[in-house]
Specification:
alpha/beta, Metallo-beta-lactamase, Chain A, Rossmann fold, 2 domains, six-stranded mixed β-sheet, about 25% strand, elongated
């Protein structure tokens, strides 16, 4: 695949993987991207997952023919991008590794060597000339590891963005970018919004014609759309108007309350998304909690706390820096219902959370009283 006249794609698709990073369902696989910049000097940008060493090296050979690379640029040391460093260095014995000090420390931890005699250590803002192409290295710590850097080719105006602007799915997957890029961002990067904002501010000073991420397709059209979404996600702003109802239910009574609220909200013209946390893809539920402005949580009081799937969901929200949203509660208990209090306490440490005035308490099953509470909550949430 040709990105520009001098930049070629040498990455791979993974259709065997079922869980990315051991937790994210990827029905359409993953892409591990790697690129070659052809010039007087040749630079290979990052490696790929360990399972694809032979395919990746064959891709490089197919582009280079009789030439050999001068540099291997390592932007990110996570193993899906760095696993084949040692294999590459064994095949191309004259190549040097271009990276930063933190990355070389990690390299030694992964491989037992930091290739000390073959290092080109760069600092933030340093440049490397390949001949016609000039590379500038821009540090992006905690997007989403501390050693991460991105690379700007000022000749072709291409930003190699590491895990930034990545998405789930192999390159041959027929799917829109936004949804799987959002799920990828919220799941993997959302905690580090401040650091992403810093990187976006640095990138704003660059003339970028294409973005080459380490996962997902090369972005070469309508870059404003993708950059705007990253700005929304990393500043924790509401992307879409709507209300998410996330619930857990044992015998169906809390489910009935959640579905009744959804019905009442839709009658009031609201866009409603409902997740049964015991059955849905939890990452999609977390994604929607960040996408929309209002979240309703419904669960039972369980062993003096809340149902495990809800507990997991709230932990994920907190650890991903959930903030700047309105949250309401539906609790259910046959005796001593305390779920709303527990859920609220789990979110009180989150920034700029507005709790609804109305809380719905179901005692075993919906009644006239709890249905009236649902009506009141629907009115409140429809007038925010």
């Amino acid at each position: 695949m040709e990105i520009t006249k001098d930049i070629k794609y040498v990455g791979v698709n993974d259709h065997k993987i079922d869980l990315f990073e051991g937790q994210y369902i990827v029905p359409n696989g993953m892409a591990y991207n790697s690129y070659i910049i052809m010039d007087e000097k040749v630079a290979v940008m990052d490696t790929v997952d360990a399972n694809f060493n032979d395919e990746w090296l064959a891709n490089i050979k197919g582009v280079l023919a009789d030439r050999e690379p001068d540099y291997l640029v390592i932007q990110h040391m996570e193993p899906d991008h760095s696993a084949n460093i040692a294999n590459f260095m064994e095949v191309y014995k004259n190549a040097k590794i271009v990276s930063n000090t933190k990355a070389f420390v990690m390299m030694k931890q992964f491989f037992g060597t930091d290739f000390a005699e073959r290092q080109v250590v760069v600092n933030d803002g340093d440049t490397l000339s390949l001949g016609n192409h000039m590379l500038t290295f821009v540090f992006a710590p905690m997007v989403h590891w501390p050693e991460v850097m991105v690379t700007y080719d000022s000749t072709d105006k291409v930003l190699f963005s590491a895990d930034g602007f990545g998405k789930f799915g192999a390159l041959d997957a027929d799917e829109e970018w936004d949804c799987e890029a959002r799920r990828y961002y919220i799941g993997i990067v959302a905690k580090y919004g401040k650091q992403v904002q810093t990187l976006l501010n640095k990138a704003a000073a660059l003339d970028i014609k294409a973005i080459c991420p380490l996962h997902g397709p090369v972005l070469a059209e309508d870059l404003g759309h993708y950059i705007n979404l990253y700005d929304i996600w990393s500043s924790y702003r509401v992307e879409s108007e709507g209300i998410v109802i996330a619930y857990t239910s044992v015998y169906g009574h809390t489910k009935a309350a959640a579905e009744k609220l959804a019905e009442l909200l839709e009658k009031r013209g609201q866009n409603v998304v409902v997740h049964d946390l015991a059955r849905c893809d939890m990452a999609e539920a977390v994604e929607d909690a960040f996408r929309y402005g209002t979240l309703v949580l419904g669960t039972i009081t369980y062993n003096g706390s809340i149902f495990p799937f809800m507990h997991d969901f709230l932990n994920r929200l907190e650890e991903h820096s959930y903030q700047n949203r309105t949250v309401a509660f539906i609790e259910n208990g046959t005796w001593a219902p305390t779920a709303a209090k527990t859920m609220r306490s789990m979110l009180e440490g989150c920034k700029d959370i507005r709790f609804a005035e109305n809380t719905v308490t179901v005692k075993s099953a919906l009644s006239k009283e709890s249905t009236a509470q649902l009506e009141a909550l629907a009115d409140e949430l429809s007038n925010i």
